[in-house]
Amino acid sequence: GAVVSQHPSWVICKSGTSVKIECRSLDFQATTMFWYRQFPKQSLMLMATSNEGSKATYEQGVEKDKFLINHASLTLSTLTVTSAHPEDSSFYICSAMPFLTEAFFGQGTRLTVV
Amino acid sequence: QKEVEQNSGPLSVPEGAIASLNCTYSDRGSQSFFWYRQYSGKSPELIMSIYSNGDKEDGRFTAQLNKASQYVSLLIRDSQPSDSATYLCAVKGPLSGGYNKLIFGAGTRLAVHP
Fold first, then answer.
1. What is the mean pLDDT of each successive set of 10 residues along chain B, which is 114 residues long?
2. Strands (DSSP E) along A14-86, which ranges?
3. Beta-ladder partners of B54
4. Which residues does chain A have within 8 Å of residue B102's beta carbon, measured at their own beta carbons?
5. Contacts of B97 in chain A (CB under 8 A)
6. Does B41 touch chain A (CB under 8 A)?
């Protein structure tokens, strides 16, 4: 299967600071990537669709000014959580569909805001 | 009504038994269906994909799809303790703005006991 790499795997930050998470497709080009958030014992919730060279598409209820997405190349999408607060603590996961069929996921990033 | 529904479980089966996981979806236009396995603290990994009515077998796993009933299932034969995880049903939703989004169910927690 295709390889999607996410970095960092975990991060702890102070309340009010910003955190950037990277998602890379290692062996394919991804014009579209997806960002999910997962709270403990809950399912994956799609936050936004990242589009190479254009603006991201955010799901209803997701603050676009708080969760900044940049998809500057065909292999890299970044999610920046701005002015993070403890309620933003969650498991963030990116995915891509190299063949427009199955989705492959990055390893996920555990964000803890203290 | 949720778009993709699964029983949250836990589903407890003895080692060597068949585990049966079920999923229903609401959008009749859905074309692609997936089962992912997620271990605690990890990102989902693809187990099976199915696109047409009937059964699809891969090793100990069998996916079953019935589009008329809007139902998809996963059977795990000869269940092993290592199969203990949360199983996520995912459905590729209708094209929206040109992007294929995966809609996830809440997941069924499977526990295989020795």
1. 84 97 91 94 94 96 96 98 96 62 91 95
2. 19-25, 32-38, 45-51, 57-58, 67-73, 76-81
3. B65
4. 34, 46, 95, 103
5. 57
6. yes
Whether pLDDT at A27 is above 60: yes
For chain A, what is the radius of gyration of the CA atoms? 13
Q: What percent of chain A has pLDDT over 70?
A: 98
Q: Are B11 and B72 in contact (CB under 8 A)?
A: no
**How many DSSP H helices and E strands does chain B contain?**
0, 11
Cα A19 to Cα B5: distance, rounded to the nearest angstrom: 33
B96 to chain A: nearest residue by CA? A57
Apex CA B19: angle with CA B13 and CA B25, to 5°?
A: 130
Q: What one-letter code names the amino acid at B46?
A: L
Phi, psi angles (nearest 5°) of residue A49 = -110, 125
Structure tokens at A67: 């969760």
